[in-house]
Design a protein that fits this description.
The complex is a heterodimer of chains A (about 425) and B (about 400).
Chain A: E1 6-15, E2 18-19, H1 21-30, E3 36-37, E4 50-52, H2 66-71, H3 74-90, E5 100-105, H4 111-122, H5 144-150, H6 154-163, E6 169-170, H7 178-191, E7 197-204, H8 209-217, E8 244-245, E9 247-255, H9 256-262, E10 268-277, H10 290-303, E11 312-314, H11 321-335, E12 344-345, H12 348-351, H13 356-372, E13 374-375, E14 398-399, E15 404-411, E16 415-423
Parallel strand pairs in A: 4-8, 5-6, 5-7, 11-12, 11-15
Antiparallel strand pairs in A: 1-2, 1-9, 1-10, 3-4, 7-9, 10-16, 13-14, 15-16
Chain B: E1 5-14, E2 17-18, H1 20-29, E3 35-36, E4 49-50, H2 58-61, H3 64-69, H4 72-87, E5 100-105, H5 111-123, H6 133-136, H7 141-150, E6 157-159, H8 165-178, E7 184-191, H9 196-203, E8 228-236, H10 237-242, E9 249-258, H11 269-283, E10 291-293, H12 300-314, E11 322-324, H13 327-330, H14 337-350, E12 353-354, E13 374-375, E14 380-387, E15 391-398
Parallel strand pairs in B: 5-6, 5-7, 10-11, 10-14
Antiparallel strand pairs in B: 1-2, 1-8, 1-9, 3-4, 7-8, 9-15, 12-13, 14-15
Helix pairs in contact in B: 4-7, 8-14, 11-12
Classes of the chains: A alpha/beta (about 425), B alpha/beta (about 400).
Chain lengths: ~425, ~400
């Protein structure tokens, strides 16, 4: 049985560099990191006080009204705006709306909307400064918009509503692999014949008090507070955690013949997807990256490719001490001595880490790399640590003709997912 | 030729108790198991009843340190998976764990745990947030703990889709096995919605009843919520055969649809019917369903849409097909609700029993139903699930043909 082939025909992104894939690519291809002090909330009692935030967005252009935005958690707006860009590029008018779906993944969903309401119930204005008796909540009901904003599948539902999509609409919520898992879900939905095209990607908005504190206390976040743009430094000896970021990355996946019939530009092909679970630890992984390596092998097998065919690796490279070490070990396991010859980079050095959105953004960056024959650099990589001795394309990008690119991700829950993207032909 | 997928094990923690047997007893007795909520103070206008898990000792199912690091919904899930694996007699050591995974539906997150941390954050400050908040609250928490507990290293995901969450988890398990991504997936859902803030947020949806859960009846004014977890072992047919596993039923069709005009409410009949039809088409069946486990949202408009969708599907020719709503016995379990219904459908096939429709005193429309459990050799069951935002997902289970065993 030959698998139905799946290509990318539209892409959209919202990241701290601005709205649009062009902004994302300009920043990542040139290695210009983002980051600054957190201003949305008071981080003074946290160890990590920096993040990269989304600039003001002109929403009228993106099918979103200010009223909706006021009612929504930020991640919903990011997802809808990114989907708008992807849908415009894919130009799907006239296709069957029964035969398409949406899957936007997220690690945490609309926490801010929920936390805001929670805070006002626990600490009513008249009691500020006084400890309320645990566990009584103050008076007041919770408006239905709070649960709507909080629910992780709301971005998918809102996207479906805007473009009249009537097929499968769901959300995979698998931590930091959510974005690429959603793309993997879309790949399978097209292969199995359930749909002909799928809006898929990831969105997250984790700069809220509880999220900051929760990641901070387990030392997941960088504490390089005096140097926000130098804080995300994957593979560098002085890396100390990831930089918390918000954003979204969304692609339109389409069955190859469907796209050919419509005669639209094919940006890239999703050749294979592999995913597993390390069954080892909720936030940690094997030092030798064995399950991470296994997920990459699954993706290569799914793509029907030998490891030797990979021309560039867009790494997870979260800038935590353990991840970057284990990832390096995994690449050596798979590629053997050739691991030293494959250019690798972590574009999280530029974008920081927007949780579930990151792995979708990285599929977009990988696609642009294929299109532009350009390997984006790992910014801030000055002194690689001893256990990270591969070619991470430090600080400067480079020209290289690329045929197949590997992008991989790891996340809480022990998940590893990898995707192989091939050059598209119009 | 597609790989075929069968159900070979069941596990449940519900208001009926721990295990599928007590649940089956309650479903066939048709007696609802709702009780007054005592876990936290309710305000006067709050609904007072819920399907609460009682006599559940987390320590029996979860290692003591892990009990403190995880939400109660994860405790339910771990117990439920433990039961399902035993029921399936699946000796994991004999199989390649890379080919075994878990998919879990979870609609609301581990809010029982998270609320204590949110209190700490907002009352004492950020220093008071503990190290387990980051792994106890998020939607893949139970999935991760299940995989660690049993060393499952295969295809594993968490799905969130309101009351369809566990149907999406089950549907994706079915597809993943068909496509060859795994041989066995323990799929289902979990939910523990009875925490003070989350309960209030759910009341805000306006879908909860103030008195009882009576889908399709004239008194229907909403559902009551329940808590717990339900998981099923989905297995590739040959894999199950080779190890001589008992088969409850075969999953033969799955369909998803969306009413993109539904806003924040439920789908209209036409789109719901589309999900049913996709599932039946894949099953190669036409108007020949023996039983429906309906979503039964229990409000007049929602129930009417569901009856209309079924009437359209069957062309008004209901034949032997009768409707039940297993959730009306133990409550709408959100992330676990659809899994409960699939579990009930699988048991109904295996035990050759037509389930009664609980809470029904005066039907509003013509819908065939049984007042009490009856012996009936069901060949197929359609399980419906619906969620806010107009999303629908339907699954068809079928008796495994004896020629196949």
């Amino acid at each position: 049985v030959t698998k139905r082939r799946v290509v990318i025909t539209g892409m959209g992104a919202v990241c701290p560099a601005g709205v649009g894939v062009t902004k994302l690519w300009e920043a990542t291809s040139a290695g210009k990191p983002m980051g600054g002090r957190i201003r949305k909330l008071d981080p003074s009692r946290n160890h990590s006080r920096i993040a990269a935030m989304i600039p003001e967005i002109d929403l009228g252009f993106y099918h979103v009204t200010p009223e909706e935005l006021g009612d929504w958690d930020p991640l919903i707006g990011y997802a809808v705006v990114a989907a708008g860009e992807a849908m415009r590029q894919a130009d799907l008018q006239g296709t069957s709306l029964d035969r398409c779906g949406v899957c936007v993944g997220t690690a945490i969903g609309g926490v801010e909307a929920m936390e805001r309401r929670f805070a006002t119930l626990v600490v009513p204005e008249e009691d500020q400064g006084i400890l309320p008796r645990y566990p009584a909540l103050g008076g007041g009901d919770v408006a239905p918009s709070v649960l709507w904003s909080y629910s992780p599948n709301t971005p998918s539902v809102e996207i479906a509503a805007r473009w009249g999509i009537r097929g499968p609409v769901t959300c995979v919520s698998t931590g930091c692999t959510a974005g690429v898992d959603a793309i993997g879900y879309g790949l399978d939905a097209i292969r199995s014949g359930d749909v002909d095209w799928m809006v898929a990607g990831g969105a997250d908005a984790p700069v809220t008090p509880i999220c900051l504190s929760a990641f901070d206390v387990i030392r997941a976040l960088t504490r390089r507070n005096d140097d926000p743009t130098g804080a995300s430094r994957p593979f560098d000896s002085r890396r100390d955690g990831f930089l918390l970021v918000e954003g979204a990355g969304v692609v339109v996946l389409e069955e190859l013949e469907h796209a050919r019939t419509r005669n639209v530009p094919i940006l890239a092909e999703i050749c294979g997807f592999g995913t597993n679970c390390n069954a080892f630890h909720m936030t940690s992984m094997h030092e030798n990256g064995e399950m991470l390596a296994a997920s990459i092998l699954l993706a290569l097998e799914d793509a029907g490719l030998e490891p030797g065919r990979i021309d560039y690796i867009n790494a997870h490279g979260s800038s935590t001490p353990q991840n970057d070490r284990a990832e390096t070990a995994a690449y050596k396991t798979i590629f053997g001595p050739r691991a030293y010859d494959i250019p690798i980079s972590s574009t999280k050095s530029v974008t920081g880490h927007p949780l579930g959105a990151s792995s979708a953004m990285e599929v977009i960056i990988s696609t642009r790399a294929l299109q532009e024959s350009w390997v984006p650099p790992t910014a801030n990589l000055v002194n690689p640590s001893a256990d990270c001795d591969l070619d991470y394309t430090p600080r400067e990008g480079r020209r290289k003709t690329l045929r197949y690119v590997l992008s991989n991700a790891s996340g809480f829950g022990g998940l590893h997912s990898a995707i192989v993207i091939g050059r598209g032909k119009s | 030729m597609k790989r075929r997928v069968v159900v070979t094990g069941l596990g449940a923690v519900t208001a009926a108790g721990v295990g599928a047997e007590p649940l089956w007893g309650a479903l066939t007795a048709g007696q609802p198991l709702f009780s007054p909520i005592t876990r936290f103070p309710l305000r006067d206008h709050h609904p007072k009843l819920a399907g609460q898990v009682r006599d559940f000792s987390a320590d029996r199912w979860v290692p003591p340190t892990l009990v403190r690091q995880t939400d109660i919904s994860t405790h339910y899930a771990l117990a439920s998976v433990d039961l399902a694996l035993r029921d399936a007699s699946l000796e994991l050591d004999r199989f390649d764990r890379m080919r075994i995974g878990t998919t879990a539906g979870h609609a609301l997150g581990g809010m029982d745990y998270a609320e204590s941390q949110l209190y700490a954050q907002w009352v004492q400050g950020p220093e008071a947030v503990g190290p387990y908040q980051a792994i106890a609250w998020f939607y893949a928490a139970a999935m991760g703990q299940i995989s660690i507990r049993w060393g499952l290293k295969g295809y594993s995901k968490a799905f969130v889709a309101d009351r369809c969450s566990s149907m999406h988890a089950i549907g994706s398990a079915y597809r993943a096995i068909q496509l060859g991504r795994a041989d066995v997936i323990i799929a289902g859902g979990l939910e523990a919605p009875l925490s003070p803030f989350m309960y209030r947020a759910l009341i805000g949806t306006g879908q909860m009843s103030s008195q009882g859960y009576s889908p399709f009846s004239a008194e229907a004014d909403g559902f009551l919520i329940g808590e717990g977890a339900c998981f099923l072992v989905f297995e590739e047919l040959d894999h199950a055969r080779r190890r001589g596993a008992r088969v409850y039923a075969e999953a033969v069709g799955y369909g998803m649809s969306t009413d993109c005009g539904a806003g924040r409410g439920l789908s209209v009949a036409r789109d719901l019917c589309r999900a049913h039809r996709l599932a039946l088409d894949e099953a190669g069946m036409q108007k020949t369903i023996d039983h429906v486990c309906a979503d039964g949202v229990a409000n007049l408009a929602g129930d009417r849409m569901e009856i209309e969708a079924m009437s359209n599907l069957l062309d008004e020719r209901w034949g032997p097909c009768r409707t039940s709503v297993p959730k009306a016995i133990v409550g709408e379990m959100y992330g676990a609700g659809a899994a409960l219904q699939v579990l009930a459908g699988a048991m109904a096939i295996e035990r050759e029993t037509c389930l009664p429709l609980a809470g029904m005193s005066s039907p509003t429309r013509r819908i065939p139903w049984a007042p009490a459990a009856e012996s009936q050799r069901l060949q197929s069951v359609l399980i419906a699930s619906r969620g806010n935002g107009g999303i629908n997902a339907s699954l068809v289970l079928k008796r495994l043909d004896t020629r196949d065993t």
